Amino acid sequence: MDVVHWHRAFNWTEAGPGLLTSGAEAHMYRIGPDDADERAPLVVKMSFPAGWATAAHTHTDDYTEIILAGEITVGRTTYGPGDVRVAHGGTGYGPLRAGPDGCEA
Fold first, then answer.
1. What is the pTM of this model?
2. How far is the C-alpha of 44 from the C-alpha of 51, rounded, in Å?
């Protein structure tokens, strides 16, 4: 098997697509040399404005969220900087509401 070496460096603002219709901002990239490889893991940095909210929902894939700044309430539990949430694909959770200073995850 051939070993492929690669290195990527960029700023989050360079990773698309940017503002979502919900008012949240998403920047994402795939781990690997090619963003077009849909088999590669996806990394997303979300910015939720103060008071942002969405209904309970699921994701088809396994999901990990690391709270970087601010806070977000999921159901009845509030998470802050350093907290990590992990959900198996298909697991429902929510509703979600960003705190008074918003949330970055």
1. 0.83
2. 20
